[in-house]
Each structure stands twice: as C-alpha cells, then as structure tokens.
Amino acid sequence: MSAEKNHPSVSPVLVLFRDDFRLTDHPALSGACTTGQPVLCVYVHDPETTRGGAIGWWLAQACTALADALSEKGGTLHHLSGHTPDVVAEFAQAAGVDTVFWNRRYDPTGKAQDTALKARLEQQGINVQSCAARLLHEPWTIRTGAGTPYRVFTAWWKAARTMGDPGRCLPAPRQITFASLPADARALTLRTLPPVPPLPAGANAAEADWPCTEADAQDTLTTFVEDNLAHYIQEHDRPDKDTTSRLSPYLRAGLLSARQVWHAVSTAATTPALAENAEKFLSELGWRDFAWMQLFYEPDLAWRNLRPEFDHMPWQKSPALLAAWQQGQTGYPLVDAGMRQLYATGWMHNRVRMVVASFLTKHLLTDWREGEQWFQARLVDADPAQNAMNWQWCAGTGIDASPWFRIFNPVGQSEKFDPTGAYIRTWVPELRQMPDKLIHTPWKADASLCRQIGFTPGKSYPNPIVDLKLARGIALECWKNLPDRKESGR
Ligand SMILES: Cc1cc2nc3c(=O)[nH]c(=O)nc-3n(C[C@H](O)[C@H](O)[C@H](O)COP(=O)(O)OP(=O)(O)OC[C@H]3O[C@@H](n4cnc5c(N)ncnc54)[C@H](O)[C@@H]3O)c2cc1C
C-alpha cells in the first residue's frame, strides 16, 4: 500500500468502479496497478444509472465500503457527478490521465455509455482498457453451431461446461500507488456526496440482514461452502431451511465475483456427493450468465413480451389485488410469507419468488411487469437481467420459459416446500398458533379451533382473495384464446 503521491513526470491511470465494489478479482484495478503508474479510483453518481429503492441503498453501502477499503490503503475514491461519458472524459483530461480502465458492462445503458466514453477518450488521446469481470463467460462467447445466441438454458449450460472453468481469480493488488489530484481535476470532484437513498418503508430488517463489505461477502461464501453446499440439492428449494448461499446481493454489487464463487465451490467438490451438489449449484450460477446473455441480446427484456402472442393477454388491472399481493395480504400463507420477507428484508427465497410470481401473473392475471417493478423496488439483489428474465420465465412470456399452463398451486407448493409451516410462521405471525395441518389452508379451521387459538378468519388474517380453481380456469381460458398462440408453437 502507499499513500497518494505526486509524480509530476508520470501520468496517472484511472480506474472506474461500477457495480464492482471490491479489490480482489478486479481486473481493471489489477491492470491499472500493473502499469506501475499512479492510480486514480473514480466513481460516478450518474442520474442515468443511479437507482432508488432497496438496491439504491445497497449499492450506496457497497460504494462506501469500497471507499473505506481504499482509504485503509492510503487512497481515495474520487466521486464525480453527471453523465459518465462527459464527466469522466473531462476529469481524465484535467488529471492528465493516459489510460482509463474499467470492467465491461452488458446492459443497454451501460454499453451505450461505455461506447460513447471510449470514443471521447480516444479522441482526447487517452487509452482505454476494458476487462471481463462481471460474469463467468461474456455474453457473446457461447453461441450455437449456427453462430446465434442460445435460447434454451440446458443447451447453453452444456456448451458452457465444455469451455472449462472460467479464468482464474486475481488477488487484491499487493501495492496500489495512488495518484494525487491536480487542482483542476480536484475541482471536478464532489465535495459533498449525495445522500444515501433510504431503504423503502418497512424494510426494517435489511440493514441487520445484509452486512456490506467485501469481507462480509467472502464470509458468506465460506459459510455456504463449509456448512450448506453438501445439502444444496436436497434443500435448495426449501425456504424453511434457508440454506441457499444468500450470495445474490453480494454478486449484484460486485462485492465478490462470480468467478470467485465458481472456484470456491469447484475446489470444495472433493467427494462425489459434494461434486454433485457443486454441479447443481454451479448450474444455478449459470442462470445468472444466461440472464445477462438474454439482456445483452434483448435489451428490452424488462418490458417486452419475448413471446409476442402475450401482447394480447387480457391482464386485469386491479389496484386492490396488486396491493394485496404487494403487502402479503392474499390469504395464501406461502405467498404472503414470501411477500412479507421481501418487504422486511429486501430478499426472498427463490422457490417462493417463483410461487408469488406465478400467483400474481396467473391466479391474479396481473401483468408480469407490475411484479418485475415491485421486485426492482424492494430487492437488495434487484438485477436488471436476472429479475426480468425470471419474471418472463414465470409468466411464460420469455424464451425457454415455464409454459403458461404450468400454474403453481400455492397450497401444494407450501405443503411440499414448507411442510411444517416454519417459514410461514416466521413471516405470518397471525398464523403461529395454527396447527401444522391447517397452516397452509387456515380458512379451513373450524369454529371451535378458531375460538381456542383466538383466530378470527378474515380479521386475524385475510380470507383467500381468489378461488384457486376458478382463477386457474380463467387463466387457462385466456391463454387458449390468445390469437397468435398456435403460430408460436406453444
Ligand atoms: C420472479 C423472480 C425474480 C428474481 N429476481 C432476481 C433478481 O433481481 N436478482 C437476482 O440475483 N436473482 C433473482 N432471481 C433469481 C433467484 O431467485 C435469486 O438469485 C436467488 O434466490 C438468490 O438467492 P441465493 O443467492 O441464496 O441463491 P443460490 O441458490 O445460492 O444460487 C447462487 C446464485 O446463483 C444465481 N441464481 C440462482 N438462481 C437463479 C435464477 N433463477 N436466475 C438467475 N440467477 C440465479 C444467483 O446469482 C445466486 O446468488 C429471481 C427469481 C425469480 C423467480
């Protein structure tokens, strides 16, 4: 480590941080350090990419953690404000930078900004070095024999596996020589940082649930590998067990890299039983890459039905039903438990995400984009690619999606994946006294039991807002009547 120094004769290099708030396995930072030139670390508060909601709060925490880590090494994270291509180009010029390093982005806004920035910098005679860091494999690197992007996950995953392990992980740079700023450049940095976006109302457990440093991310990975990888196949669908890795927020903010997760899990797979669990886990991590590949090729993934026949779906527009779903007041305990977990903590177990998404789109016949936006506002792992792809998957509107006619029964899912109701009891305290056999269907409790446990149906806890059988029938009928369904082959 070394403190900021003036090196009048040596130009500095600049590292841009964006959703990669870490020092380890950070190719842009390592590349910058390898030049031997003094380094400027920069973050841009860009209105075009700044996020609100839980994810805005989470990314701001991660940015602060990075600033602290750099400060411990004697450096500074310089904050700029404005449109990235404009402010970085101006700052680089003022600071006399000769090369700008960044890790590549794959979302439409990020791609457009980086293309514009590269052009601006090159015009100014400043070099650009961009690196692969966010994914296991960059979106364009795995293609079908015909040279087109894969549309089916299993085929994509098979092809991905033939590529071998992703590249090795880089350690944190042993030494970072930080550059000091000339006055012209210093004048362009923010003196006062924008306020951290507040957590959404009701997200009272998020702060305690999600410690936010690079070390916390590594600890979460180590705990998962040591304690829970061995049960992943058996337990990953069980919200009551809560033994999945819980790495998604850390991956989202880049507090650790997918490569680090991959290598930690692969290395631990020392027995056939562990290897089987590791393979299952790695394929889930593969879905993350697959989602990013979809966003790369379908930039409007978050708002356009990838199956156009769904443009004719007669979605209901009921604010009351949507609000009941958002607030966890549907009368279906597993759905309500999931929505309340999301509300309080900013996270929800994957199995329950699938159940609540199916319930919203099929039983409540509500446009998947309403759910996608609610998740974007509430999740600490809200990710433009993973969220959009999964909503389209659940709604049957996406490529390689679960077909519309596969409608999860929230009661059956609850009995199967939360058999004793432990998860429900955590998040729906009104049902804590309900016996196990009625925890999934509290509306069936008879009057004497209700009296005994002090439960008033419809008052202590809502009665079901829709009849499952009826709602399912309507959903199937609407789908069968979609004008272009036959032409699309499904
Ligand atoms: C409707 C819906 C919306 C979702 N929105 C998001 C989102 O905004 N951000 C997000 O990170 N994940 C999203 N997911 C995927 C998944 O639910 C979460 O990644 C997972 O629950 C995170 O918990 P974990 O880290 O313990 O997962 P683990 O089971 O431990 O999996 C490890 C990692 O694999 C990746 N992964 C696992 N499942 C999926 C999947 N189905 N699709 C893509 N990647 C996956 C994640 O990066 C995850 O952290 C969504 C799923 C659904 C059904």
UniProtKB/TrEMBL annotation:
GO molecular function, one term: DNA binding
Positions annotated to bind FAD: 232, 244-248, 281, 381-383
Site (Electron transfer via tryptophanyl radical): 315, 368, 391
Record has Nucleus as a keyword: no
Cofactor: record remark: Binds 1 FAD per subunit.
Cofactor field: (6R)-5,10-methylene-5,6,7,8-tetrahydrofolate; FAD
Family statement: Belongs to the DNA photolyase family.
Protein name: Deoxyribodipyrimidine photo-lyase
Organism from which the protein derives: Acetobacter senegalensis
